[in-house]
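User: Structure with flavin-adenine dinucleotide, tokens only please.
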Amino acid sequence: MRIAVIGSGIGGLSSAIRLAKKGHSVSVYERNDTYGGKLGQLKLNKYSFDTGPSLLTMPHLIDELFQMHGENPRDYFNYRKKDIHCKYFWDDKTNFTAFSDKNKYINEAVSKFYVEKDSLLKYFSRSKKKYDLINELFLFKPINKISTYLNFDTVKALLNLKLFQLFSSLDQVNNNDVGNQYMVQVLNRYATYNGSSPYLTPGIMTIIQHLENHFGTHVCDEGMRQIPASMYDLCRKIGVKFHFNKRVDSIIVKNKEATGITLENKSLKFDKVISNVDVNITYKKLLNDKTYLPNKKNMSSSALIFFWGINREFKDLDLHNILFSNDYKEEFKNIFESNSLSADPTIYINITSKDIKNVSPQGCENWFVMINAPKDIGQDWDKLKNTLRKNIIEKINRNLGINIQDHIVEERVFTPKDISINTNSYLGSLYGESSNGIFSPLKRHQNFSRSIKNLYFCGGTVHPGGGIPLCIMSSKIVSDLIEKSN
Ligand code: FAD
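Assistant:
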């Protein structure tokens, strides 16, 4: 079959790799001049930065894409497991190191926060059980297909419904099951991994910490950009055709069937069309569907990112660092209720020069400083970013006992509006719809169109969700659906 993939984000690239394996002729159309979508790269003189994801979990899912073509993924990209997942800091000088070694992690939690070892062990084991049940039933299969649910896995999941803690928020579960305000804040933070609020997302989301604590966090030898770069190299080797600087204007639909795409006033015929473009943009722009109403209120958070070239090193910091807000609840209220920023936000500092060579000059560091931000609804980002910059500099100074302003030698800022423009993401949301609400995971858009035959969706805005691993899972679902459609 001739298959068009619109967009070369991680979902589009992995779909192309899977479909080429099935012998199809795959053409990828990308409006930018390069592949990777949100996994972009920025260079500021001698400093380089990944502009999107910084945390790599479940890299075996990427490896599988190479292995299915008989290729050794290590010939394309390499990664190492981190001993430290993240370093956490509070204004009152409390700190916590999240070690990848479970015993070390638990010892740290017991000695710093006096949490009970048994409570943490129970919490981890319950999260694992949730993941094992959901993984089989949900993550690699289409939603809204009856066949997904007619099996023993559904019965098993239903028998364990209480285990999922659906009717409590993640914050309530963390308070009840673990306790201690610092530890709860560490565990609450996982809600942000899919752009949600720990006070609104259900307790089932303890599975996100399981993905990190069980599968580990990893660092690519040459940075995150190496992931789409390697996938692109593989695509080229297996015959996938790429068309850059080609913005698709519409998906052609005839008699309720997708028959191709249009771009530059030309119509191109295809047997199947896969959209890797944000699903809301796909409906609004590519299908010109006036009846489609995006769930604007429930979109996931966006981000304000400061890319700073720093002219010195900080020995106490690691690859991933968090400086926590003193009022976490208020911070999420601001993001999801008033679409504004907290005066004391949580600051994420990602420093790839800690683990990767040649991304900053000798003795210097490349800081990716990210603040969770509301979706873009037309706020005055220039004004907000200036106030935020002042606030975060003060907080960093308080925590590290320095004047960071004196050490910033390069700077670029991305606002939610920039993210929206650069990657064509609806309102600049990082992960499509958030998981705020009990049934939100079941409400994500499915990977196929109910009303238009031969039209499929992959990537972070559709089932099973955002983030690199889930985008890759979406490509498996799409490729299985296409196989079954014949
Ligand atoms: P996208 O990356 O959204 O790409 C879509 C592609 O479609 C783009 O290349 C775009 O140019 C192209 N396109 C759009 N419209 C058209 C058109 N009309 N014609 C042709 N092409 C078009 N995930 C993690 O796993 N870990 C993290 O630490 C993490 N942190 C993040 C931090 C930030 C700042 C951001 C932005 C995201 C982060 N994510 C993280 C989320 C992750 O990046 C996304 O879930 C994932 O990359 C989305 O991939 P996708 O397949 O949906 O495609």
